[in-house]
Amino acid sequence: MTTKYIGKPASRVDGLEKVTGKARYSADFKVEGLTYGFIVSSSIAKGKITSIDSSRALALEGVLQVFTHENVRNLPWFKLRYTDMDAPSGTPFRPFYDNTIRFSMQPVALVIAETFELARYASSLIKVEYDKETYTTSLYKNLSKSFKAPKGKIGYVPPKSRGNADAAYQDAAFKIQAEYKHSAEHHNPMELFSTTAIWDNEKLTVYDKTQGVSNCQFYIGNIFGLAYKDVRIISPYVGGAFGSGLRPQHQLFMAVLAALELKRPVKVGLTRQQMFSFGHRPATLQKLALSASPEGTLESVRHEAYSETSQFENYTEVIVNWSATMYACENVELKYELVKLDTFTPLDMRAPGAVTGVHAMESAMDELAFELKMDPLIFRLKNYTDEDQVNEKPFSSKELVACYREGAEKFGWAARNVEPRSMRDGKNLVGWGVATAAWDANQMPSRAKALLSIDGKLVVSSGTSDIGTGTYTIMTQIAAEILGIAIENVTFKLGDTNLPLAPLEGGSWTAASVGSAVKTVCEDVRKILLKHAVKTKASPFYQYDSTKLQIDSGEIFDPNDSSKGVSVTEIMRLAGVNSIEETSTSGPNPLVGRKYTMNSHAAVFAEVKVDEDLGTVDVTRVVCAVAAGKILNPKTARSQILGGVVWGISKALEEESKLDHQYGRFMNHNLSEYHVPVNKDINDIEVIFVEEKDDVVNPLGVKGVGEIGIIGVAGAIANAVFHATGVRVRNLPITMDKVLQIAEDDRNQVAV
Amino acid sequence: MKQETSTLEIDDPFSNTLPAYTLVNLRINGQTHKLRLQPWVSLLDAIREYIGLTGTKKGCDHGQCGACTVLVDGKRINSCLTLAIMKDGAEITTIEGLADGEANHPLQDAFIEHDAFQCGYCTPGQICSAVGMFNEGRAHTLEDVKELMSGNICRCGAYTNINAAIMEVKAKLENE
Ligand code: FES
Ligand code: FES
């Protein structure tokens, strides 16, 4: 047995805790003397609170306090104090700041009581009177007020045009133009947001649901005037997040406020309904115009996106930029504008921007391929490029052609007839669609610590999080292999501000960022061990050249001389050290970023069966072929892609947060009316990881797999629905009424 | 039959009197817990907040997600839709009670092996639900399993792996 773990399909190291109910999520921490909070949400979308009467709630035995804007006064309200790491430009929402209502279901009061049931009941007794103001929540009605999206948010890059798209479009032989609409979506992780805050001995301990413990630590420290060292945020398990944990949510502020004020531990959770009162994927309108030569050369791309934001912040994401890098094209015109509405600020949601923009672009590519009477896969291959034309740089690696080839083979694409409505299975029309996907391969600065004890156990830690992504497992694999000890002897810790600083867990950059830090720190420990091996008199390798030595399975040895060997624990004993502790930092190499563009890629093939009478769509098969550099763990990485594909199916066919503009509120704010796939909705999903070697992207050669799996799926399904039915449904989700072209409020479908 | 009319004061239902406490015996995983509870406590909150068995999860509190699934006398139910006082004396099994001593339930091992979860939040509910489904004896094919497991949402999208784990254990149990 050798200790080679990277790239092996290890089962999750946290699996046992998860299947036995021992894994502790934010609401699972037992605390003596715990009190419970329940939030009262505003019933209007905009206006002023004229009065709040809490007397009845307070009259109940066991109700401890009701917090409102009237009695929360002594906080520093400067907007900068509320600005978290993922905040866009603007003024962040400040709970209980004043009597202004800025969005529907805004928290207006917090009841604290001895039991959860009592807090919930008491919340129903609080009378809030409002002065309503007129509000507007429709993106489409406010398009005339759109403005250029400002910079300011982490990861946002403004679009860059090139050439002359309009002129090329005018002259082109083949062209299409179309509009695509997406409604808002909510993340809806299974775990409800919850925070437990404990104020003890002038120190605050907080159990929270978050994708960034440090982000919450700074946020709470800044708002409540506490030293960061006195604020500890703990979050060992996160029940899904998908971006919703990137910003501190209402309940964190509420729980801390009450715990500091009452000097009692407080747990505050959001209900599923209240989880529709914070960030969401924004509704968008996209306009595309593409043109091509008769041979199928893409001659122009015009892509405009109009996206909603709140009145108080400018949420931005990268929607249109992908259309400038995915295919070779001389003339590209891009535009990205925001429209302010009376809703909460949108928030990054799995593959923010790309999911939206790529669906529209990949549908438009399919529409143009159909005009050309060309196979849509051949059309894509024809316009393939190895250069990022926006930044005039090569890609560090791009095995997209292999994705197309291996995916098409597995799927059986060659048997496809270009004609729509050409395949049938009984009463079902069958359609096949394809789409491309791309996502950034980023790396962020990150720190990690390693502690090797005399008993041979290694504890590695970093304040990152594992939202189901497999972070615990891959970090354990990296540490065990780099140091050369058995995986059973390695424990990885995360989700605690007492651990070294890690970036927000998002953007598919955790494997690259934290993984590189873990690699570096374990290399440092290894060097120290080898130094002891050659500097300790009693060591069999005394005065050896340490670069000739290796460590495997906990044994230090010379590969060229099998006569000698010493275990890691023995060398520590001989050297008289009880433990070795190191902390290291790792970050991106700026030179590499200047020379290359780094993206992961995927090709998605989908088969749908559409009931001809009912218009219902069943996704019977999906093949997702991914090029994402080195795959650290094919088992957990495959799960990430499976999840992404399920999300793509969901986006294409099910998800939609419906705003009732009369109330300015998301009306389907629960899991029975906000549709996400259930078991029965999901059929065959095939995941392929194509070989992709990338020596420059980061020391591990990984690109991340959290988002690349979702990006192309909605496009592939929309294209398959067209191929099956001859109806092009441009507005997501693709529901039966749109397929049958009888949707009352939606006429944006065309049939051939 | 004579019609009786009664007048009911409904414009102000407010009362300072809170529901009275009742003694409830909850038998969970073979152990009896004597609790003083108000009748408005759900079985889910009794298990999590009053007894401290937090393996059972709350995902909606409305019977819409299945995260809170437990077994009551071998039948799977949504514990958020049940009041604790209604289950006085019943045999309740939660995720913490599925193992046989040190040995995991075969579904627990199969879930790990097939990576039938990502975040793991729906997992206790999925496993309890699958045990309940086996007890019902209605699942014969993969299609049956997909249908009968559709009350348990997995937002991470682990369905294909969940089904692989269930089918493997199902085959094993049937061969025994
Ligand atoms: S918490 Fe009971 S069904 Fe969702
Ligand atoms: S594993 Fe995350 S919801 Fe199922």
Which features does this protein show?
heterodimer; A: 752 residues; alpha+beta; Aldehyde Oxidoreductase, domain 4; 3 domains; 7-stranded mixed beta sheet; 5-stranded mixed beta sheet; 18 helices; 25% helix; B: 176 residues; Ubiquitin-like (UB roll); DNA polymerase, domain 1; 2 domains; 5 helices; 5 strands
Question: What does this entry look like structurally?
Answer:
The complex is a heterodimer of chains A (752) and B (176). Chain A is of the alpha+beta class. Chain A folds into three domains: 26-134 and 189-271, Aldehyde Oxidoreductase, domain 4 (2-Layer Sandwich), CATH 3.30.365; 142-184 and 280-442 and 594-751, Aldehyde Oxidoreductase, domain 4 (2-Layer Sandwich); 443-587, Aldehyde oxidase/xanthine dehydrogenase, molybdopterin binding domain (Aldehyde Oxidoreductase, domain 4). The longest helix of chain A is centred in the last third of the chain and has 26 residues, at 510-535. The relative contact order of chain B is 0.14. Chain B is elongated and about 55 Å long. A five-stranded mixed beta sheet of chain B has the order 2-1-5-3-4, with helices on both faces. Residues 1-9 of chain B have low confidence and may be disordered. Chain B has helices at 43-50, 106-113, 123-136, 142-148, 159-175; strands at 22-28, 31-37, 69-72, 75-78, 91-93. Chain B has 176 residues and is an alpha+beta fold. Helices cover 31% and strands 14% of the residues of chain B. In chain B, a hairpin with a 2-residue loop joins strand 1 and strand 2.
